[in-house]
Description:
The chain is of the alpha+beta class. 41% of the residues lie in helices and 26% in strands. It is built from eight helices and ten strands.
Amino acid sequence: MGESDMNGSEQPARLVHHFESALTQALDGLIGGEFVVTGSDLEGELPSLAQPHIWEQALSLVAGPSLWLVAGKEVWSSLAGLTLEAAGVSDATEGDIRSTWQELVSQTMAGVANGLTADMLREVTVSEGKELSSPPELRQWVTLTITHGKSKSWALQAGWSEPLAAALARRPGEIRTQAGKESKMSKTFDLLLDVALPVSISFGKTALQIREVLKLNTGSIVELNRLISDPVDVVVNDCVIARGEVVVVDGNYGVRINQLASREDRLRSGIAEASAIAGNGK
C-alpha cells in the first residue's frame, strides 16, 4: 500500500477516535460514572429511527457542514434523562430533555474539534450548527455504541463530509515539519508552560461615581453593560482570550467556549503573566 493510500485510510479511524473520546468525556462530565464509547462501520443505510435528533455541525477547518450526529428518541431521551437525574432534576419537561441532549451534542462536537486541532497543528473550532429534519446522504457513517455498566447500552450514528476527510488527508512529512518547528521552542518557554495562570470570567463592566458606590447596600442592583444573551469573557492576565456561554457542570458554574482569541494573543498573555510571576520571585 502506498503512502497516500495509508494516509487516506487513517482519516476515518482518526475521526471515529475523536467522536469516541469527545462523547465519552461529555457523558462522564455531565453524568459521571464510567462510560465506554466504541465506533464501528455502519453496514447498509441509516436505520429508521423514531423521532430522531439530527444535528449538523460546521467547523472552521472547511467550508460548509462537516459533522453529523443522529440519535433516536429512545437514545437521546434516556441519556438526557440520566444527565438531569445527575443534576438532581426529577420532573423534567420534554423541552428540558431536548435542551439537555443538545448540551451533550454541543460538548461532543467541541471535543471533536479539539481532537482535530491536535491532528492539524492548528486551531479548529465549531461554528454554525443546526438541527435537521432528515439526515444527509453521506458516503460513510459509523455507529457509536455507548455502554454504561453491564446492562445499559445505546447506539447512535455519526458522519462527516468528504471535504473534511480531504482536509485531514495530509502528508506525514508535512506534519513532521510543523512539529519540528514547534520543537525548536526554547527550554525557558517550556518551563513557562508549567506556570499556573489565574482565569476569571467577566459578565460585564460599568462605571459608578463615588457617591453612587457609597450608596450601595444589601439588595442594591448594579447594572452591567452587557445583555443577558451576550457571551461572557474568559480573562487571563487582564486579556480576553475567549468568549462563551455559562453552563452548569456537576453543580458548578462553567463556561462553554464559543470563540477563541488567536493563539498568538493567548501565548502573549501567558508569557506576560509567567514573566511577572518570575519577576516577583526575585
